[in-house]
Amino acid sequence: VSVKKSVNAPSTDSITRSYGKTVTTLALIDEEFAKLSTTEILNTFTGKSSLIPTAATLIITPDHLITQWKQEICKFLPGVYNQTGEVLMITNYTMLSKLSVQAFLNAKIVLVPWSIFSNSLYLNQLALLTALPAPKVQDVGRESKAWLEYALDELPTSVKLLRESASIRDFASSMKAKLDIRMNDSDFQATVPAKRLKGKAYQTAKSKKQTVRNPDLANERPKGEIVGLDGNNAKSFKFLSRPLFHLFKWNRLVIDEFALVTNRSSLLLSSLARLEAEKRWVLSGTPPLDDFHDVKSIAKLIGINLGIDAFSPGALSNEKAKGLRAELSSAEVFQSFQETRSLYWHIQRYAQARKFLDTFVRQNNAKVDHIRTTTHLEPVRLGASHRAVYEELSLYLNSVNMRERDCSKSTSDREERVSRSVQNCSTAEKALLRSCAVFTADGSVNEFKDLINVRKGQLENLKVDLLNELQIAERLNKKDGDPDAKYKRWQSEPAGDHDAAKVLQNYIKRARKRTDMTRPDRKNTLREKVLDLRRLSRELTSRIRSLRYIQTIHQLQQYNLGYSEGHEAEKLCSVESCLNLVTRPSDLRILSLCGHIICKDCLNGKELRDTCVVEGCAAELDQYHIKTLDDFGQEENMIDGKSFGTKLDTIAELLQNVENDDQAILFVQDDDLIIEAKTCFESRNIPSLPLLAESSGEQAKDVIEKFKSSTKQKVLILCLDSEHATGL
Ligand SMILES: [Zn+2]
Ligand SMILES: [Zn+2]
Q1: Distance of CA 265 from the midpoint of ligand 2 (Å)
Q2: What's the gap in Å between 606 CA and the centre of ligand 1?
Q3: Ligand 2 center to residue 387 CA distance, Å?
Q4: Using a CB cutoff of 8 Å and minimum separation of 24, what contacts does 486-492 make?
Q5: What is the SS3 string spanning 406-465?
Q6: % helix / strand / coil in the chain, to the nearest 5?
Q7: What is the enclosing helix (H) or strand (E) of 252?
Q8: Residues 131, 171: contact at Cβ < 8 Å?
């Protein structure tokens, strides 16, 4: 319904590709001025508005893009727009205090960063102009939004009064009088107790009612006063100083990279949505169109409400739902969980969103054929030990359904190793990405043999612990007996792996022979020891498998090398009864969970079994556990000593081959990887500029300027989904 209503409205929503949207916008602004005079433009305005009409275009950009806009204006519109006052670049609120309404009537383009709209001084001035108590600055939620909406509703009345007033002074005093009345009006005073009071305290508070006033919540007068630029005697509203952007009806409103506004703050979104303009354009190279909510946010900026927020699972990402719920009251949050909308209702909404997009959204195809681009794919094969570590992590994360566990409680060594790699990664997928991108392996594990030795060491350490605990258990068994037969039962539990079972039986025998080695604590009971033993035997299985897996990969690689040199066939299959001599390494499969090698014949048709085909092995058999030798690359070739993993090494090599003045941009997934990449490039003497996603708009501006101004900076490292990556 809303869409239909607005089709007649002269608003345009133009989303162009990142390339050239600035130029296109400037060209269209200039074309209008070439055809029409300022007065003629004002005559084209439709609809009634009490606000001050201006033929200027208001361009609102992210902080880091404002200089770029200014440069493009100077570059593409040099003749016309270099006169003073035609282009106003207002980078902060202080600059606004040196301007009057007249400045915006003279201007053709007004360029502002969006941070100005959330400046507390801007809101303070809005309070002065609408005779309202000052907003509570620290609150960015719903209360502020309500205040803002109220103030903007009042603004046209104020503007009308301003234009009718004989002088700025007259207007200032009538606003002051209005504010005086309001400050004493109970409607404009907060009387809510700050704490929730119960029982007697509540009764007392209730009887006093109006006297319970929380000083934090009491409204304050806005600071300062309304002034004119050349004294307050000025006879025209045009001399009003600190003219807010909301006072005007603009010829054109351009919001650049609107996607960043919509996910920044809903207060900012509301503020921008309430700017009045004859034409509204919102620009983005990469508009978010994931769900209804995204489209709704675009629509809001051009003054269309597509409907209410809906929280049904699946209709909205968890993150977005969380953000939206943060602004609801407890009762509303409760209601939002109860919500039951039909599928049809959602389908209708999507249809409406699509209709909106079809009507208002355009994508410009930039004509950039003359710029030659080539796509060059550089396949990277991870080194064998890197690959093995990655596979191990992948195996683990898949086994816990890509959910991390609480690291502090992890008892398994494998889990601990994994949690070390998962550290600082918010999701399991990120941990995997990082694991395949970077491989520094603690400095010590640089070669496959080292990795095998580390695994062997881990296994031996565990065996020492195991023997220790077994001896204590045996002693306790002799002394107090085994009342619930728990210890006995544990001994007959399957270990899940034939090698682990052998080690266990062997160690139990050894422990029985010598019980004088370790003395149990007085507090120890056999029952507790059994719990420890169960944990250790599980861990034993896990470590034996880890070691076997690594050894298997190594063995097969060696065999593969020998095979290509014409060595004789060997029996490699782990199945005992199998007599196959392997002639082709490609006939073998490695099971990543237990490290067993299975030949083609033994696996044939058994992929659907639950467990490994090797006798005594209870490892689960799953499609993604079955690997071929091709899955593992060759041993890493060390490049100049230190390797950061094949991927980063290859990137560094490519960058070293970038010719003299050419520069490169590297996109990576997150800030950690930016730092890893920088460290790698530093060690290769490649000058690089990292731009972390968490840096401020100001910092980003500096880094980008530095990169553009010096070709010495070979590479700019950006985070894929950070806002700094937009609009470059
Ligand atoms: Zn076999
Ligand atoms: Zn197995």
Answers
A1: 54
A2: 12
A3: 20
A4: 486/526, 486/527, 486/530, 487/526, 487/529, 487/530, 490/530, 490/533, 490/534, 490/537
A5: CHHHCCCHHHHHHHHHHCCCCCHHHHHHHHHHCCCCCCCCCCHHHHHHHHHHHHHHHHHH
A6: 50, 10, 40
A7: strand 248-255
A8: no
Whether residue 13 has pLDDT greater than 50:
no
Ligand nearest to the CA of 575: 1
Q: What is the pLDDT of residue 23?
A: 83
Ligand closest to Cα of 581 equals: 1
Of residues 507 and 422, the one with the higher pLDDT is 507
* 3-state SS record for 89-157: ECCCHHHHCCCEHHHHHHCCEEEEEHHHHHCHHHHHHHHHHHCCCCCCCCCCCHHHHHHHHHHHHHHHH
Q: What distance in angstroms lies between residue 613's CA and the mean position of ligand 1's atoms?
A: 9
How far does the centroid of ligand 2 lie from the alpha carbon of residue 562, in Å?
A: 25
The answer to whether residues 703 and 675 touch, using CB atoms and an 8 Å cutoff, is: no
Which ligand sits closest to the CA of 606? Answer: 1
Tokens of 180: 């005086």
**Residues 507 and 463: beta-carbon distance below 8 Å:** yes
Strands (E), 585-707: 588-591, 597-599, 626-627, 664-668, 688-691
Sequence letter at residue 512: R
What's the mean pLDDT when you consider all of the chain?
A: 77
pTM: 0.62
Ligand nearest to the CA of 600: 1
Measured in Å, residue 576 CA sits from the centre of ligand 1 at 8
Nearest CA-CA partner of 243 in 57, 400, 408, 105: 105
Dihedral sign for Cα atoms in the order 297, 299, 301, 304: negative
Residues 718 and 716: their CA atoms lie apart, in Å, by 6
Task: Please state, in angstroms and rounded to a whole number, the distance separating the CA atoms of residues 643 and 636.
Answer: 9
Structure-token pair, residue 335: 């209601």
Query: pLDDT for 437-484, tens place per residue?
Result: 777 544 444 566 766 777 788 788 889 889 888 888 888 888 877 777
Ligand that comes closest to the CA of residue 589: 1
Using alpha carbons only, how large is the chain's radius of gyration in Å?
35
> How close is the Cα of 564 to the center of ligand 2, in Å?
27
| Distance between Cα 621 and ligand 1 center (Å) | 16
Residue of 244, 45, 55, 60 whose CA lies nearest to 155: 244
The CA 613 to ligand 2 mean position distance, Å, reads 7
Pick the ligand that lies closest to the CA of residue 613: 2
Give 17's contacts (C-beta < 8 A, 6+ positions apart).
285, 363, 364, 365, 366
Token pair belonging to 555: 């063995």
pLDDT of residue 251: 92
Residue 262 has pLDDT above 80, yes or no: no
Instruction: Match 């080695």 to its residue by tokens.
Output: 517
The pair phi, psi for residue 670, each rounded to 5°, is -155, 175
Give the up-direction half-sphere exposure of residue 148: CA atoms within 13 A in the CB hemisphere. Answer: 25
Say if residue 323's pLDDT is above 60. Answer: yes
Closest ligand to 614 CA?
2
Number of the ligand closest to the Cα of 603: 1
CA of 571 to the centre of ligand 1 (A): 8
Q: Which residue has the tokens 């009864």?
A: 577
What average pLDDT does the segment 29-57 reach? 89
Pairing mode, strands 109-113 and 715-719: unpaired
Residue 582 CA, ligand 1 centroid: distance in Å: 9
- CA 586–ligand 2 middle distance (angstroms): 19
Which ligand has the nearest atom to the CA of 588?
1
Ligand nearest to the CA of 571: 1
Ligand 1 centroid, distance to 602 Cα (angstroms): 4
